[in-house]
Amino acid sequence: MTDIYTLIAALGPGLAEGLAATGTALGIAAATASGIPTLAEEPGMRGKIFILAFLPMTQTLVYGFAYMFISYFVVLPSLLAKYGGTIPPFAAGAILGVSILVGLAELVSAWQQGVVCGQVGAQLIKTRGGIFGIGVILAIFEELFGILGLVFGLLVLFVVIV
Q1: pTM of the entire structure?
Q2: pLDDT tens per residue, range 153-162
Q3: Which of 24, 52, 75, 125 has the most crowded CB, counting CB atoms within 10 A?
Q4: What is the largest CA-CA distance in the chain?
Q5: CATH of domain 4-161
Q6: What DSSP designation does 56 have?
Q7: Domain boundaries, the chain
């Protein structure tokens, strides 16, 4: 039977992925809401709009998933082995806390990346697509915070907990 602390620890990584997915959904909505009028006016821009709408997905598909996967298949099993099949309260709280922070970093990163991508998509017609390259670079600046959320989260898990 699983104790409450092990359950709390096991909920954290899934919560991080859920928050990342929420940010991705918000980011895609922001990017597509601004991109749809561009597509209506110039259907030839669809490839650029698809790329801009896809960018916020990396926080869920890559960073949130990587955090969840490493947590479930490396961190939690090593803690269970180290402490005889249960996770102590300090570790459970740390995993849950770090997971919430990682999830929030991914949520905000994806959401704001979608806002940037939406603004780029809205300006594609005015610039005849010229803003696209610089816009993707600006969107990648937001991506950095998703990467940092993953790296810092894993660093805390490996250094403090394991």
Answers
A1: 0.92
A2: 999 999 877 6
A3: 52
A4: 63
A5: 1.20.120.610
A6: G
A7: 4-161
